[in-house]
Amino acid sequence: MILTVTLNTALDITYRVRSLRPHTSHRVTDVVERPGGKGVNVARVLAALGHEVTVTGFTGGATGRLVQEQLTAVPGLVDALVPVTGPTRRTVAVVDELTGDTTQLNEPGPTVTSAEWSAFQEAYEDLVAAAEAVALCGSLPPGVPVGAYAGLVRAAKAAGVPVLLDTGGEPLRRGVAARPDILKPNADELAELTGSHEPLRATQDARRRGARAVVASLGAEGLLAATPEGRWRATPPARVHGNPTGAGDSVVAGLLSGLADRLPWPDRLTRATALSAATVRAPVAGEFDRPLYEELLNRVTVTGEATAA
Amino acid sequence: MILTVTLNTALDITYRVRSLRPHTSHRVTDVVERPGGKGVNVARVLAALGHEVTVTGFTGGATGRLVQEQLTAVPGLVDALVPVTGPTRRTVAVVDELTGDTTQLNEPGPTVTSAEWSAFQEAYEDLVAAAEAVALCGSLPPGVPVGAYAGLVRAAKAAGVPVLLDTGGEPLRRGVAARPDILKPNADELAELTGSHEPLRATQDARRRGARAVVASLGAEGLLAATPEGRWRATPPARVHGNPTGAGDSVVAGLLSGLADRLPWPDRLTRATALSAATVRAPVAGEFDRPLYEELLNRVTVTGEATAA
After folding, report:
1. Per the domain annotation, does B254 fall within a domain?
2. pLDDT tens figures, A234-279
3. Using CB atoms, which residue from A69, A92, A102 is nearest to B23?
4. Quick check: helix, strand or coil at residue B298?
């Protein structure tokens, strides 16, 4: 079982309107709802690839119940969310049909009490004991200490379970010092962590800060990996047009899927790159265009070299 | 018991953002949720005035359950919503903190099947038999026949229960022909119904089309009433600044409250005008500023004359 942690789960709502004009009234022509939050997106992609996945994090209120109902309907996915008093947040993406652009409104999420945070940590330790890999994904809700991911990384390592961290800002800075097995920053997160806008240098620097392996996601330019086994760059054959939301989450899913299948790093990077591009083509995060994914598996270019043994 | 009918119930969500800019991402700083739909607003105001109120209409899905939970928490209010398969709609009002302006996003609501509409009509007839007055409020959800209100008006009249209609467009045109006791159009609805933008003439014309009494709500200019007992104009002492959403619903609540208390028309109009202005001062529809309401009761001006007996 692969465990994904989403401390700030969400119900992602997508509204289509003809044209968004501030300070007017709009009739929404289409409503789509999906369970969301980065780790939930990762879990949905992993489940679609045939892995057994357990989702943990927090759930609260009516929105939380709705997220749980939708999660348990996904084959291969187990809901192990921990209850909190505050309501799970909604995110609303308003898609303008005329321009194709999206306006995003994100609720802040519940404030987690220290008792709730303690209850989560206990549940997490039990879940980690049964996991083959763990992904820690996304922002922290109000009330969760900024060093939260550092503690969760250490608990996974103590249990001997590989742990991937995908977050930003101070939680990333604290988390990397706890020596996660894989760090998956995007270009902005990497630059903020290291102070360098030069990805090759920055991935090296992130390793020096504690991560065993760093895989930076550089959007349409693919992935840049610095690992103890070698350094590689994985590139999709062409830019895919669509909705980039969730592309980074699919990189995480591809890396964990390859780890669980004991693939060498170049094959993990190929899988992650193909999944990410196929997610851009899908309408929502946590989903991917399967025919495109399978086609891209043969067309991703990986260059680089293994470290001398 | 006063019965209010809201065929298109809603969960009204209000988001505050610092400044709404299309095609960017926003952190919502404050989230407020209220059960909504025009008849629900009317019911909440009536309950706050001390009346026993029953709410009917449709409820579906997780949003419907949330609406029902919140309704049953209101003292004096009974939930008699009829279940449908489709989900109750949400409305999202995005308040821009810089300008104070609101951008509205309204989901379409569930599609009601003919079996669901029949079940509602049966439940309605039972409820009407126990009611002292009925209010039919707001738009029709998809699937409900455009002549729906005409049938509901006729059923109330057959039961000998006074019925007020507050809607627009074709449902209003059909409904007025069924001879409701009170019609409560706003200036736009009245002009659309009668073709006249001259309110005095238009209220008379709406009576000729079938309404026993017509009370037009003219925003800050107050109310214009044409009834078998006489014609009046009710005017608040000064313009109240605030959020006009729900002001019309509070007019309906004031008229029904006065009817239930057997007040003469001028006193009903005073109550409705004061409630409406006090609702503009409240942050959300279905609520009112009680000290302002009580102060305005003594300061509303009613002019006009009773019909010679």
Report:
1. yes
2. 999 988 888 788 899 999 999 999 999 999 999 999 999 999 999 9
3. A102
4. coil
Residue of B12, B79, B166, B249 marked catalytic: B249
State the CB neighbour count (10 A cutoff) for residue A65.
18
In a domain, residue A22? The reply is no
CATH of the domain at A234: 3.40.1190.20
Which region among A97-106, A173-182, B108-117, B250-259 has the lowest average model confidence (pLDDT)? A97-106
**Known active-site residue B205:** no
Owning domain of residue B249: 2-10+37-90+109-306
CB nearest to B22's CB, from A29, A96, A107: A96
For the stretch B12-44, pLDDT in tens is 999 999 999 999 999 999 999 999 999 999 999
- Residues in chain B whose beta carbon is closer than 8 A to a beta carbon of chain A? 15, 17, 20-29, 31, 62, 65-66, 69, 92, 94, 96, 99, 101-108
Whether A269 is covered by a domain: the verdict is yes
DSSP secondary structure letters along A26-79: EE--EEEEEEESHHHHHHHHHHHTT--EEEEEEE-HHHHHHHHHHHHTSTTEEE
Closest-CA distance of chain B to residue A61, Å: 10
Count: domains in chain A: 1
Q: How far is CA A173 from the centre of its chain?
A: 17
- For B219, the 3-state DSSP assignment is helix
- Rounded to the nearest angstrom, the minimum Cα separation between A229 and chain B is 38
Report if residue A302 sits inside a domain.
Answer: yes
Residue B226, min C-alpha distance to chain A (Å): 31
Which of A23, A26, A99 is closest, CB to CB, to B106? A26
The answer, yes or no, to whether ipTM is higher than 0.95 is no
CA distances from B8 to A123, A129, A288 (A): 42, 49, 35
Q: Among A205, A249, A267, A289, which one carries the catalytic annotation? A: A249
Identify the band that residue B309 occupies on the pLDDT scale cut at 50, 70 and 90: low
